[in-house]
Specification:
single chain, alpha+beta, Aminopeptidase, Nonspecific Lipid-transfer Protein, Chain A, 3 domains, seven-stranded mixed beta sheet, about 25% helix, about 30% strand
């Protein structure tokens, strides 16, 4: 058999669509199929071909996200699928390895995906980076209080909605930087209405995107820039009490709604959502906005990453007083001597385990040291878990001083994501 990994061409799109229909268990009508094929972009899809037949595939999407208030380009992995007769033959692993190489060449320093299985993608260096809080409230449990003296208007004005969304999104790590095409094809196509809140002075301060059906009010997005807008939008939701018995909402994991209610015992659930992994440690460190402490910080970062050999090894991480980082690779062999991945290592163990193996308190050359897999480094830098917590859990090794320096260097910012791909 002749195996090949390559980008799809227009001639491959029908085969790709058939595989997606099978793998994700949906079926398009004839007209829907025609329309879908028109929108598919072969240059974003990669396939594993066996004797010129598509056996497995994934989409590699060029996207932008907000990290520490800075817009970064990243690669979104989506539509990963394999025909059953070709499964468990390492095809997806080879497609992911190819995607990492392509992303590095294109300067995309980060990659994210929605996993069908968290353990599966942990094997390839991906780690959870965002959780969402899912609320379900009865109408008698909704926030109370007088509505601010502002006004509401229904609108599909993309310029207005986009400006409000961006001002909200920049507060979090991992929110998409949406372009007009994303708004038109992914957001405005959802059933529901957009309502913008303006202050008494006419300043737009937030919006709600929601739908009411079968006595359920589903909030797709609630975006607010000031506390006034949050209170106003909840007052607007309350005014649907004759139409809806229940309200559903997805919010950031640290959302304080329950704390603000007279009776905080409401139905809420924390749900792990997307995973991420750093593609290129050196390039990501140069773009990442570290904390500006006014002093230069330096530590040795030893990274395990068997699937991206350019990351696997030791780096001297230097962060200047303004928060600008630089990771310089040291001339040495990589850390991963086998195919053991972070997912296969114990996820709970004594916090000191591994410290002696990595040189005790200080690394060679006198620098404080941090040792971890690429997934844990990603979780720390994206704000999903603090470095000190990871060290306490035994998931970040090295010296105590190294962990403390990284703790101080990583700004506290909550990860969140409203979108799906």
């Amino acid at each position: 058999m002749q195996n090949e990994i390559r980008q799809l061409t227009a001639a491959d799109l029908e085969a790709s669509l058939r595989l997606s229909e099978f793998a994700f268990q949906y079926e398009l009508g004839e007209q829907e199929r025609v329309e879908r094929l028109k929108t598919m972009k072969p240059e974003t899809q990669w396939g594993f071909f066996v004797d010129e037949e598509l056996a497995a595939k994934l989409a590699l999407l060029p996207m932008h996200t907000w990290i520490g208030g800075r817009k970064l380009e990243f690669g979104g992995i989506a539509s990963v699928a394999t025909w059953p007769e070709y499964r468990r033959q390492g095809m997806v692993a080879r497609l992911l390895a190819n995607a990492l190489r392509v992303m590095k060449e294109r300067g995309w320093t980060l990659s994210t995906l929605a996993p069908f299985s968290f353990p599966f993608y942990r094997k390839y260096g991906y780690e959870t980076y965002v959780e969402r809080k899912a609320y379900e409230l009865r109408k008698d449990q909704l926030p109370q209080g007088a509505a601010p003296e502002g006004s509401f208007c229904r609108t599909d004005d993309l310029a207005l909605l986009g400006s409000l969304y961006e001002a909200y999104a920049v507060r979090y790590n991992g929110m998409l930087a949406r372009d007009e095409d994303w708004w038109r094809t992914k957001v405005l196509t959802k059933k529901g209405r957009f309502v913008v809140y303006r202050s008494a002075a006419g300043e737009p301060l937030g919006y709600i995107h929601y739908r009411v059906a079968e006595r359920m009010l589903t909030i797709h997005e609630m975006v607010w820039l000031k506390e006034e807008a949050r209170r106003a939008l909840w007052a607007f939701v309350r005014n649907h009490d004759s139409m809806a018995e229940t309200v559903k909402l997805l919010a950031p994991a640290d959302d304080a709604l329950a704390f603000l209610l007279p009776e905080p015992r409401i139905k809420q659930e924390i749900m792990p959502y997307f995973m991420a992994r750093i593609v290129d440690v050196e390039a990501f460190a140069a773009l990442y906005p570290f904390a500006a402490t006014g002093e230069t910080t330096q530590l040795r970062l030893r990274v395990r990453d068997p699937h991206a050999p350019w990351n696997d090894g030791a780096f001297v991480l230097t962060i200047d007083g303004e928060g600008r980082g630089r990771a310089e690779r040291e001339a040495e062999s990589g850390l991963s001597t086998d195919e053991t991945t972070e997912a296969e290592r114990p996820r709970t163990k004594d916090a000191t385990e591994g410290t002696e193996a990595s040189g005790g308190g200080q690394a060679d050359g006198g620098l404080p040291e941090v040792v971890c897999g690429i997934g844990m480094l990603t979780a720390a830098l994206l704000g999903y878990r603090r470095p000190a917590e990871l060290r306490a859990l035994g998931l970040l090794e090295g010296s105590e001083e190294g962990a403390q320096l990284l703790e101080y260097a990583v700004p506290a910012r909550t990860p969140f994501l409203l979108d799906f791909f």
